[in-house]
Amino acid sequence: MAPTAVIRDDTRGNGTVSFQGVTVTGAADLTHEPRVTSTATTAPTELQYKDLVICEGQTTTPTSTVTVQYSGLLYLTGKAFDSTWSHGRPAQLPLTQVIPGFTQGIAGAGRVRPMKIGGRRIIIIPASLGYGTQPQTSIPANSPLVFVVDLTNVHTQLTPNWPSTPQRLARPLCGRDTARP
Questions:
Q1: 118 three-class SS
Q2: Burial of 37 (0-12, 13-18, 19+ CB in 10 A)
Q3: DSSP 8-state symbol, 85
Q4: Which value, in Å, is the radius of gyration of the alpha carbons in the chain?
Q5: pLDDT value of position 153
Q6: What are the residues whose beta carbons fall under 8 Å from the beta carbon of 31, sequence distance 6 or more?
């Protein structure tokens, strides 16, 4: 059975969605980088998320290694600080080695459902689940963050000494081919 996608009801015909001061244009187009802006004026106190594309693929866990495309911005200024799209390829990341808000926003925690392969999600991360008081190169201390994340793959570890093996769904993924070279 081919995977299916659900595009959120609030994705307008032009593919624009707004959530908590964040606007994503191209929200349902997983083949191109979305245009993300933030006009938020109040820092969040808890992780917030909105699914833009929901798929029926494999879910993540907090110990998964994932392959993602993402755009990252400072929530209160809208300034971009990183994008795998600008690097020309997705990133493969162990969720045990990223900021807690990124792990929780992808793998789920509390009221946050885990993402499934082929999905796209807005994740708004309070500073306490980001870098907190530790400034990074392009991220000031105490900065809330926003990511728009496409989950393209989930990897599982077969044995402690074997390389990670990708778990993919048959293509096209949710009706779109999101694979990148």
A1: coil
A2: middle
A3: H
A4: 16
A5: 96
A6: 176, 177, 178
What CA–CA distance (Å, rounded) separates 154 from 31?
Answer: 18
Q: Write down the domain spans for the chain.
A: 15-167
| CB atoms near residue 120 (< 10 Å) | 30
Instruction: Name the stretches of the chain with pLDDT < 50.
Output: 1-9, 11-12, 158-172, 175-181
Give the CATH class of 15-167.
alpha beta
What is the rounded CA–CA span in Å between residue 3 and residue 1?
A: 7
This prediction's pTM: 0.83
Peptide bond into 172 cis (omega under 30): yes
Question: CB count, 10 Å around CB of 162?
Answer: 8
Residues counted in the chain: 181
CB atoms closer than 10 angstroms to residue 18 = 16
Q: What is the DSSP letter of 164?
A: P
Per-residue DSSP letters for 16-77? EEEETTEEEETTT-TTSPPEEEE---S--SS-EEEEEEEE-SPBP-TT-EEEEEEEEEETTT
pLDDT computed for residue 171 by the predictor:
35
Write the Ramachandran bin of 72: left for phi over 0, alpha for psi from -120 to 50, otherwise beta.
Answer: beta
